Amino acid sequence: MAKTVLKNILQILIILIFNNFLAQKTPEKLPKNVVNDTISKKDTIVVKKEALDDILRTKADDQRRDVPKKMTFLNKNAQVKYQDMQIDADYISIDDNKNLIYARGKLDSLGKIIEPVITTQAGKKYETNEFSYNTKTRQAIAFNARTEESGGVITAQKTKKYSDSVFAMRNADYTTDEYYIKKKDTASDYFMRASNIKLIKTKNKSQIVTGPIQMYIEKVPTPLILPFAILPFSEKRAAGILIPSFGEREDVGFFLNGLGYYQPIGEHFDLKVLADIYTKGSWNLRPQMNYLKKYRYSGTFTADVGTMVRGIKGLDDYTKNSTYRIAWTHTQDSKANPFLTFSASVDIVSTKFYNNPLNNNYIFNQNVLNTQQSSAVTVTKRFLKLPATITGSASYSQNFATGLADLRLPQMNVAINQFYLFKSKTGVRQGLLENITVNTGFNLTNYVSTQENELFTKAMWDKMQTGLKNNIALGTNTTLAKYFTFSLSANIDNALTTKTLNKFYDPVKAVDVEEIQKNVAGYSTFSSSASLQTTLYGMLKFKKGSVVEAVRHMMTPSLSFTYSPDFSSPGFGYYKNYYNAQGALTPYSIFEKGIVGSPSSGVVGALGFNIGNNIEMKVKSKSDSTGVKKIKIFESLNLSGNYNFAAKDHPWSVFSINGQSSFFNNKLSVNTSLALEPYKIYFAPGATQGIRTEEFGHFSVQGFNVQLSYPLSSEIFGEKTDYAKKYPSKGEVRNENYYFDNDNYAHFDQAWTLNINANYAYSKGLSALGNKIASVGLDGSIKLTPYWNINGSTHFDLVTKDLAYTRIGFSRDQRSFTINFNWVPFGQYKVYDFFIGIKANILSDALKYKDRSFTQPNAPF
Questions:
Q1: Residue 490 in contact with residue 473, Cβ under 8 Å?
Q2: Alpha helix (H) ranges present in 581-737?
Q3: Domains of the chain
Q4: Which helix (H) or strand (E) segment is 288 a member of?
Q5: Of 7, 213, 462, 516, which one's alpha carbon is 20 to 30 angstroms from that of 284?
Q6: Which residues does UniProt assign to the signal peptide (predicted)?
């Protein structure tokens, strides 16, 4: 018994000592000379944590508290505020046992919710039919919730909030229809439907991640079904997968176009890589990089590399061609550096790239009609104090018809700013001497014309030519007898080249041989001219009361005399002679195959003339406030020609007449040109090529061209109708007003445009049979309804009686998205294109549906 009591006493003491040890406070570090009391007299009390982290504020028209069940019921205009959340509903219940807040919208007599629950958190509003929130876990569940995110709205059958940043939704629809968002319409005109959606929200951005998702238009499902989708909602750029379009083409099979990935790179770059895949073996890879530095420069680099496969391998119709395209554009901001500018426009393609391309866009924008492609890179240097501008450049030009490529690399031009040769004595320049100006500079060029497969090979470098040219131009002018302007000018050209031409007759092969020799040679030429010009005015007035009040004629005649010596004379050494296959002594220039051109042959002492005319007419007009309207009969009408006194034969040149005018309030534009041969052309019996005789006075048409352009529109022909006064009632659909007559037919402004272009060209020269080119082109559009538009273009060849390039297009405005259909029914490329594009910025590239196909050339459509 004593042992047991002693044992219990020891256990009690141990427990007391242990508890006393645990209850002690950790000593704080005290300053020196301060004694710390090791015994704490303060007891530690453990307070039970409250169920709520904040005060729960409630109000309602009717409140009831069930104390035994720890329940609170709020009816009519009920509101609960807790932390940053506010719940407004017709009915709210609060369960303290389960830490649960439940809210329900207002019911009608049939039990249908007619007013939603509105939950506001962190400035965002959510509308639901029913809503429950756990104050302890901070998780929520909502039914028929409506959530707005960055210009779009999500309506989900069931939404579960796991945290402030993660929401899971079931059977959800997403749309960017503004009318549905603003509740102007109870149904959206389109939506994307997914069985499961996860909304992820962060401080800077939000995004939707879905499983299989399908597009509905007017509640009708479309073939656009995607296995997944990632839609970012952020003002900042975000990486993501680019959704492809799909379809079928007869020549290349089924395809996926534009499958790719977008990746922003830092602050100034982004990269987009697209791939096109075809079931018959064709493929395309299209990377694109954009860069931008504000107030400095911007640019884009794109490439298009692929292989086109047609037919079945092993059969005769099987073809496989590789194509490529490399493009680069660079633009410098004008404010970045006014003394040094750099620009680039590079577009290099393979010869057959535009011939039946994989990408249908090249057909619709008519790139398939390109016959050549040009590229250029330019650097320009200006100086603050030095009066000169230095320009360095490289250019590349491709000719798809001949397969030749012209490369100029590098080129340099130094231009000296124009300056006066003599100073003015009085500060006002007078006379010929004080008005003498000098323009000079030089140009260095390296040029080669070669085949595409020879680029940057030894064969290309062997054909490369280098040329240096310098031009000095002097000019002056003065006024004679108050009404005449007298001008004098002189030009001096200097040139150097690294290659010259040697011609000779090879008796063994019996052919004329042209041999390019590698040696440095040059020439200098000069010419001078003098001109006299004046302006004459004439006015023809008509009687008072006439429709035509006056005709005004302005004439600008000018005479000029040009002189240059004969640089083909043996003393200059620029020309040589050789005996051709017929034994005739034939002169040629050693520079005629070179990059710097050839000096002129023969003495030129030509008197030239030009007569410019401008004719206007004044007519009465009730529409003009002055009562008079000016009509331009000829904006310009010029006659020009020259007579060479030094010529041994045919001193007269071909006469040229050019005219330009516009009619019908400057709508109809007319441009004409006419070439007249002053000498008689003699044709031998049966010959198709004539000979120019010395018989003057037989003016024959050698060339004629006329171009007409007339833009028509509903505004020109139709008077504006006051629909409000003419029709008794009106209605509104999507902010568009319709006016209805007594028979309830709708009326609206059916705007239309039609541009007519016509061209006729005739050229004859010394041929017996001339060549004709004649065509008529039409392009325009018409609004069938305020939301349906038809547009198209076509060209008809009047000579061959064939339709050339023709395109027909339809477009439909569907409030929040557009539908476009384009069709090329004729010609080598028969293609149609169907496109649906969402107007919302966040979906304009991510969501689109295209279905494109076209048959092979010349196959029945």
A1: yes
A2: 714-717, 723-726
A3: 57-234 (2.60.450.10), 472-643 (no CATH), 655-848 (no CATH)
A4: strand 283-293
A5: 213
A6: none
